[in-house]
Design a protein that fits this description.
Shape of chain A: globular
Number of domains of chain B: 2
Helix content of chain B: 40-55%
Oligomer: heterodimer
CATH topology of the largest domain in chain A: Rossmann fold
Largest interface: A-B, 16 and 14 residues
CATH architecture of the largest domain in chain A: 3-Layer(aba) Sandwich
Largest sheet of chain B: 10 strands, mixed
Strand order of the largest sheet of chain A: 3-4-2-1-5-6-7-8
Low-confidence stretches of chain A: none
Distance between the termini of chain B: 43 Å
Radius of gyration of chain B: 24 Å
CATH superfamily of the largest domain in chain A: Glycogen Phosphorylase B
CATH class of the largest domain in chain A: Alpha Beta
Number of domains of chain A: 2
Helix content of chain A: 40-55%
Largest sheet of chain A: 8 strands, mixed
Structural class of chain B: alpha/beta
CATH architecture of the largest domain in chain B: Alpha-Beta Barrel
Low-confidence stretches of chain B: 321-356, 549-558
Shape of chain B: globular
Number of helices of chain A: 16
Mean pLDDT of chain B: 88
Chain lengths: ~400, ~550
């Protein structure tokens, strides 16, 4: 089987979790004998074509003129034209591509036009939705357009893949998508890379001197990741245990607001912003942290939870989205009410003050991870989705007048 | 629930790889893959996607599996699809030129259908055997084995033939499907006295027989054969006739695609049956939408008829006359020309008294190739059976093994040596026009045995390769297909020529051994091995049936 994979990021270009996901999926598919061709955005220093771990990677340069990233939708459309140009050449050269796999709305136009021009079924992975990223609101015209493109991608796709029951329910509801067209395949982690040995002394010295406790967060700093909830919980924690540090890993548009919040609450001593973390830093922090907190208000899946669990760090998650499907409360981690600092503080205090509980949670979490989130398994299930898409594919000419619905409550 | 419906599809193609292409030869296999095996896999996968299990059982004969798993066949099949795509497009051009909108549309359908099949085939990496294996692993289907090259077992008396055919067949099954089969398909439903002893010792739990074989017992229950533990389930006559009757069976319906009329340049079909009496030049153009309506109709009819049958057996319903049956059916199918044509065969005696505690079964067994290849709409018809099943709560789908698990037979019977052929006897395969073939096979078998028994042999070296290939040629000679084609005058020349060429290769191999190996012998052997490349993994004992066990004097009742 031969697959054309469309993604706006692929290593070394890594923007969020999507790029890593596509990388692991593509290489695992290749190891199972699937021929994978990835077309993606260029990256400084990366070749325009390479074959890496059995995956053929083609990189494309955007068309002129330079559109600033704030003009998000025009930028994406322009990128899709470049994507299309490369993919057309590829499909003409390689006749037997059986399925196109599109990752998120960022490649929807290229995927749909290839589908109609070549009559090849499209499978779409919906990593996240605009509706979800804004907690059920589509505040501006751009958000609505993105929402409609997402709707249209699922409409054009023979099958859609999402990573959790939560996302399944969300996309079947907001995109009015038949349940029968959606498959749930949880994300995976590359367990091997978590076995790396890293010297942590320096980190311990700098961030968690002896006697102090360390609470760790990592992620893009955007509102829906909920870091503000942790900062608001800090005074409540410090009342009970004096020396607790909170390390915020990652960067993002919400950083400045978070820094002002820390100042307002006078927590400069206790909260540290590290900025972007590379892999080694990340592993070191998981190792020295007493617990990882995932306070998201919206989280389709929650890769951080899997990473933290794989590293043996006790994990506290907000009871939302995909997080509550991975973590079993009181068994593999603790949960708290999303956005509620009191609820969070109570959970953090329990783990920091009860070593037995912390050990039990992290041990059971590691056991539970087992092979459930293993990439080989995910690739095998993805192949089944491809096969099903191919079997069920019947050519339908492109419908000219489509009006993607916008949920009423999302605009008000 | 009143009874079980076991739908069994017997899939078999004689060995055609590298033995001719067109009109008979490899093309035949590619047509059947394209018309039947791929669409059937597609349909079963759809059931599997919906979590349906225990749908139906299939025989996939060893000789078929060997070909389906072959790299050369896989590559050539893709080429076949490309050829057919090109032909559909060229037909389309013709119909545009003729301003024939209807046939142009059908040609386009053909094109997209072939392209879809290409993608489907590539999505399973050409591994149809593996695809069916996965379906069995998911409990969607049960796969039965059969004799290695579909030998008509009633035609053989010596234990070596029976052993080699059965054991090579079972070993092939294990190779392809990773486990031992529960059931064994006796080619042509030809029960042979004593065969159950070999099958039992090989771990086989049941066989499928013709209805006549267990007469006067009812086909609605399972039995044990003789004093063995092998169970017998028999084909149901009603189910057989509803589909198979040449004049009134479902496939002969006026709206279905006519299988006899081809477009001259492509070999593709564009006409409907139109009517039994309609001469070939007056056939109407096919209309797929209208054909679709008949499919549901015929599926409902089938389920309704079987429901009545099951109610009758369970004593819920007094046996109605046939006329009553048609009257009770408000929507009597259009295919029937007259009621008189439809009658129960006198051979079947519904003597089901005495076994009341068991749930009845209807075993509907057909050639798989009828569906899709012979009867274009056939797979859709099976699809309809499953879709409409919920309206017929008395019927429960099951595989024979599943049925036998809950209804273990206790009554032992001695089956009669009948077949599912014409007159239900062996005359289709063994008759005046084929007796020379049987003589040749027997002579060849004796020659091979002579060499094996009186000369020392080893599993290594070039001599053993000669012997193994000779045993393979003998197995290929034993296919029931050749006498069938000769007797029925279906591609008779091809069958005769195929039989003679295997015989010739066999004789050449034996002669080379007897006369000491000539200089170019190895080269010739290589050519023959490449042409008749089947059971290449098997050892000489298995291929020749001369295993230590057979020397122990395993006889088959004679």
């Amino acid at each position: 089987m031969r697959v054309l994979m469309l993604s706006w990021e692929y290593p070394p270009r890594i923007i969020g979790g999507l790029g890593r996901h596509v990388y692991h999926l593509s290489t695992s598919l290749a190891s199972l004998g699937v021929k994978v061709h990835v077309v993606t955005k260029d990256h400084p220093g990366a070749p325009m074509y390479e074959e890496s771990k059995g995956v053929h990677i083609y990189r494309v340069v955007n068309y002129p003129p330079d559109i600033p990233q704030e003009d998000w939708v025009p930028w994406v459309l322009q990128f899709n034209v470049a994507l299309l140009e490369r993919a057309v050449g590829l499909l003409n050269d390689i006749k037997n591509i059986s399925v196109i796999h599109a990752h998120d709305w960022l490649v929807a136009h290229a995927a749909a036009s290839l589908k109609h021009a070549y009559r090849i079924p499209v499978v779409a992975t919906i990593h996240a939705t605009e509706y979800g990223r804004h907690q059920g609101h589509l505040p501006g015209p751009m958000n609505r357009i993105i929402h409609q493109i997402e709707w249209w991608l699922t409409f054009e796709s023979s099958r859609s893949i999402c990573c959790s029951k939560y996302m399944h329910d969300q996309i079947t509801e907001i995109f009015e998508l038949p349940c029968d067209k959606v498959d749930i395949i949880p994300n995976g982690i590359d367990a091997e890379s978590f076995k790396k040995d890293i010297s942590i002394d320096l980190y311990r010295k700098k961030y968690a001197p002896p006697g102090s406790k360390l609470v760790f967060f990592v992620g893009r700093l955007v509102y829906e990741k909920g870091v503000q909830t942790v900062i608001e919980a800090m005074p409540l924690i410090l009342e009970k245990i004096e020396d607790v540090k909170f390390v915020v890993g990652g960067s993002g548009p919400h950083m400045n607001q978070l820094i002002s919040l820390v100042r307002e609450l006078g927590l400069e001593e206790s909260v540290t912003f590290t900025g972007h973390l590379d892999t080694d830093d990340l592993f070191a922090f998981y190792k020295i942290a007493d617990l990882t907190v995932v306070p998201s208000l919206y989280e389709p899946f929650g890769m951080v939870v899997l990473e933290s669990m794989a590293m043996g760090t006790p994990t506290i998650v907000a009871d939302t989205g995909g997080l509550s499907e991975i973590v079993v409360h009181e068994e593999t981690g603790l949960m708290f009410e999303p956005g509620n600092p009191k609820s969070l503080a109570a959970a953090i205090l329990r783990i920091l003050s009860d070593e037995k509980l912390a050990k039990r949670l992290s041990r059971d979490a590691m056991a539970y991870l087992g092979d459930k989130y293993n990439w080989n398994r995910i690739a095998t299930r993805t192949i089944e989705v491809y096969r099903r898409a191919i079997r069920e594919y019947e050519y339908q000419p492109r419908t000219l007048k489509l009006c993607p619905p916008i949920p009423d409550e999302a605009i008000s | 629930m009143t009874g079980y419906l076991c739908l069994h599809l017997h899939s078999h193609m004689p060995y055609v790889r590298k033995n001719g292409v067109f009109p008979v030869g490899e093309d035949w296999l590619y047509q059947v893959i394209s018309d039947t095996y791929l669409p059937l896999y597609d349909f079963l996968s759809r059931l599997s996607d919906r979590g349906v299990t225990n749908c139906l059982s299939l025989t996939l004969t060893p000789v078929l599996c060997e070909q389906l798993a072959d790299t050369y066949v896989k590559t050539r099949f893709l080429e076949y699809l490309e050829t057919m795509k090109a032909r559909s497009l060229s037909d389309r051009e013709d119909f545009i030129y003729f301003a024939d909108e209807k046939r142009k549309e059908i040609a386009e359908r053909y094109y997209h259908d072939f392209d879809w099949k290409r993608r489907l085939f590539q999505s399973i990496d050409g591994d149809l055997v593996g695809a069916y294996r996965e379906l069995e692993e998911k409990d969607v289907i049960e796969i039965l084995s059969s004799s290695a090259t579909h030998a008509f077992l009633q035609g053989f008396n010596n234990p070596e033939t029976l052993n080699s055919q059965i054991m090579t067949g079972l070993q092939a099954h294990r190779q392809h499907f990773g486990h031992h089969p529960h059931g064994f398909w006796l080619p042509e439903c030809a029960y042979r006295k004593g065969i159950e002893k070999i099958l039992q010792s090989e771990g086989i739990e049941y066989v499928i027989l013709d209805s006549t074989s267990i007469s006067p017992k009812s086909t609605h229950f399972a039995y044990l054969i003789g004093d063995s533990k092998v169970a017998a389930v028999a084909r149901n006559e009603l189910a057989h006739r509803l589909v198979w009757n040449e004049k009134s069976g479902y496939p002969s319906s006026d709206n279905y695609l006519d299988s006899t009329k081809y477009y001259h340049s492509s070999g593709l079909r564009y006409w409907r049956v139109t009517g039994q009496q309609v001469p070939i030049e007056e056939k109407d153009i096919y209309n797929p939408e209208i054909a679709l309506k008949d499919i549901d109709f015929h599926a409902s009819d089938f389920l309704a008829q079987l429901t009545i049958e099951m109610q009758r057996i369970s004593g819920i319903r007094e046996t109605p006359s046939i006329e009553e049956r048609w009257q009770n059916q408000s929507d009597s199918p259009p295919r029937r020309q007259s009621v008189e044509k439809y009658h129960f065969p006198p051979v079947v005696n519904d003597d089901y008294r005495g076994v009341p505690s068991k749930e009845p079964l209807v075993l509907a067994a057909y050639d798989t190739e009828l569906f899709g290849h012979g009867w274009r709409e056939g797979i859709l018809w099976i699809h309809s059976l499953f879709r409409l099943a919920e309206k017929y709560p008395e019927i429960r789908f099951a595989t024979p093994y599943h049925y036998l698990e809950v209804n273990q037979p206790s009554e032992a019977i001695q089956p009669i040596e009948t077949t599912w052929g014409t007159n239900r006897d062996s005359s289709t395969w063994i008759n005046e026009s084929t007796s020379w073939m049987w003589d040749e096979i027997n002579t060849a078998r004796k020659r091979l045995q002579g060499i094996l028994r009186f000369e020392k042999r080893s599993e290594e070296g070039v001599e053993s390769r000669f012997l193994k290939q000779a045993a393979r040629e003998l197995l290929l000679l034993e296919s029931s297909d050749w006498p069938y084609m000769v007797a029925k005058n279906r591609a008779k020349e091809y069958a005769t020529q195929r039989f003679r060429s295997h015989l010739q290769r066999f004789n050449l191999l034996i002669k080379s051994l007897e006369g000491g190996l000539a200089d170019n012998a190895a080269e010739k052997l290589g050519d023959i091995e490449e042409t008749d490349k089947i059971f290449m993994w098997a050892g000489l004992d298995l291929l020749s049936g001369e295993s230590p066990r057979s020397k122990g004097g395993l006889t088959c009742g004679y």
